[in-house]
Specification:
11 helices; globular; 17% strand; Butyryl-Coa Dehydrogenase, subunit A, domain 1; Butyryl-CoA Dehydrogenase, subunit A, domain 3; Butyryl-CoA Dehydrogenase, subunit A, domain 2; eight-stranded mixed sheet; 3 domains; 53% helix; alpha+beta; 381 residues
């Protein structure tokens, strides 16, 4: 794997960094957190103008069919800026599902609307008590003439309050077949209970009471639908790792600058060797995260089990690094880091929320161990 950025990748990174530096100051982010929407529609429109919402999407529909590395580079800058807009939910997760579902009329039209910024999407997959495993969802899809009726509950649907459409997993009443549906977020019978997460981003619990969905909105079903969703979730997990890496690099630099300027006992705190050691530990954790992210990116197109294992390894390493880097940043800043006015507290909360999204460290460690045991049994019977 070539670790050097191409000229196009360098331009993408520099352009994104310049955009966030000029248009996404920390004060603006705090104002967005206090707003009802929790995001900036103007920024979302700019993302569309810059072509970011078309990253990785099929060229036949007007997308930019580039490798996932470009998406990871961009999301690292999202993490540096702690951008609140639901890029991963839309472009990486739902965009991937819609882009792989063939030329179904509703899916293609919605994907094109998403790429130009007119529609926002969210994935409704996790359910109460599911522990990230929802291979057989409790939400039931029952045939009613030419339509389906959806009944059940979804929990912690990330970015749902700002979504116009939902991609929802369910099981068919006839044969327990796994299925993915495209559902209007304002459909009759769909109730949404919205709330903020610890980092200020928004999520919702969704109740479905015989929500009627046309048969044309069935995106995929059976084993193909399950595999497609798992592949999209793996991509979203690596995307979140990229964001966490950007956040860790930013808060590391912020902490180093603070120790250089904060004077105690007649000299800058950065001169104390014990604190230098803690900064060095943070630096090592950041570099380990970058290394495991590159490993995950290299295996993203591998067969399912190998991809699953490497993505889980990336998530576990990144979570452990986030705990250390975020915690040390709070400790080294001192009591000021506990206030909402200090940027370090926002980075810490972002890294805290990252741990639970798309599977926590325990779930991914268990998946990695199971897959490695299965691999060992196959290769050494």
């Amino acid at each position: 794997m070539d670790f050097n950025l191409t000229e196009e990748q360098q331009m993408l990174r520099d352009g994104a960094r310049r955009f966030f530096r000029e248009h996404y100051a920390f004060g603006q982010r705090r104002a967005l957190l206090a707003s009802d929407a929790g995001l900036d529609p103007a920024c979302w429109a700019r993302y569309a103008e810059l072509g970011w919402l078309a990253l990785g999407q099929p060229e036949a529909l007007g997308g930019w069919a580039c490798p996932f590395v470009e998406t990871a580079i961009l999301l690292e800058e999202f993490g540096r800026a702690l951008a609140l807009e639901p890029f991963v939910s839309n472009v990486v997760l739902c965009g991937r599902v819609l882009g792989c579902c063939g030329s179904t009329a509703p899916g293609s039209a919605v994907l094109q609307e998403m790429m130009v910024g007119r529609t926002r999407l969210a994935l409704a997959h996790e359910e109460p008590g599911g522990r990230y495993d929802a291979d057989c969802p409790a939400v039931l899809a029952t045939r009613s003439g030419e339509d389906f009726l959806l009944r059940g509950t979804k929990c912690c649907v990330l970015d749902a309050p700002a979504a116009d459409r939902l991609i929802l997993s369910a099981r068919s009443a006839a044969g327990d077949v796994f299925a993915l549906f495209l559902v209007d977020a304002a459909a009759p019978g769909l109730r949404m209970n919205s709330y903020p997460l610890v980092d200020g981003t928004r999520a919702a619990d969704i109740a479905l009471d015989d929500v009627r969905v046309p048969a044309s909105c069935l995106l995929a079903s059976g084993a193909a639908a399950r595999d497609l969703l798992q592949e999209a979730l793996d991509r979203a997990t690596l995307a979140r790792v990229s964001m966490a890496l950007g956040a860790m690099e930013s808060v590391l630099q912020m902490t180093a600058d603070y120790l250089k300027s904060r004077v105690q006992f007649g000299q800058p705190l950065g001169r104390f060797q014990a604190l230098q050691h803690r900064l060095a530990e943070m630096f090592v954790e950041v570099q380990e995260t970058r290394s495991i992210l590159c490993c995950g990116l290299a295996h993203l197109d591998a067969e399912g089990a190998q991809r699953n294992a490497m993505v889980s390894a990336a998530k576990v390493v990144a979570v452990n690094a986030a705990r250390i880097v975020g915690g040390q940043a709070i400790q080294l800043h001192g009591s000021i880091a506990m206030t909402n006015e200090c940027a370090a507290s926002h980075y810490y909360r972002h890294l805290l929320a990252f741990e639970k999204i798309h599977g926590d460290a325990d779930w991914h460690l268990d998946r990695f161990a199971r897959l490695r045991e299965t691999h060992a049994a196959v290769t050494h019977p």
